[in-house]
Amino acid sequence: MHFRTTRARLAAATVGAAVAGALAVSASPASASASNGYVSGGGSFYDDFADEGTLSTSSHTDSNATCFWQIILYAEGVKESNGTQFDKADIDGKFGANTKYATKQLQKAWGLTQDGIVGKKTFGAADDKWNASTGAGELEFRSTGTTSATKSKIRYHGSRYYFEVFRTSDGKYRVYHNSQWQYASYKNNSSCS
After folding, report:
1. What is the per-residue pLDDT across 150-190, written as a single tens digit (0 to 9) for each?
2. C-beta atoms surrounding 76 within 10 Å
3. Which of 36, 70, 82, 152 has the maximal Cβ count within 10 Å?
4. How far, CA to CA in Å, does 153 sit from each of 88, 123, 125, 150, 184?
């Protein structure tokens, strides 16, 4: 009798674990990528960018996602192709030769392959350097917003400047440029041009 009770308990525990595992998988946030149309994330924002789409001279070349990346280049104070610092005038949402050059400079500073392409490693390096115990790094949670469009206010600390972004309740990032907040979309360029 004891054998059946133990077997029944093990079977119930196995079924319970399987159901809990299935629920956990279905409840996890969707993976971010260019396919959902936006720079986005879920859970901890310290790993939101490592699964983003690629930005380059041939991929999402004219987009708000590129604008977001250019704001990072500006905040990091990297050099552009003419030897001056990448500045606000260079933020146009168009991934051209100048943005590629500045991206290579940032990749060099971060110890990454210098190909001028913002792939998973390069984009991911922009959000994984915050150290909560020391209060240093690129990303810092600032506050919880009051609307679904301003759910989490996050500050990006570059080597030269900082800027703030919002992550909405559905995980989409919003950037501020040219006096307006826009979604960091892979599909359009409305805030930079």
Report:
1. 688 888 888 898 888 888 888 899 998 888 889 999 998 88
2. 22
3. 70
4. 22, 19, 20, 7, 15
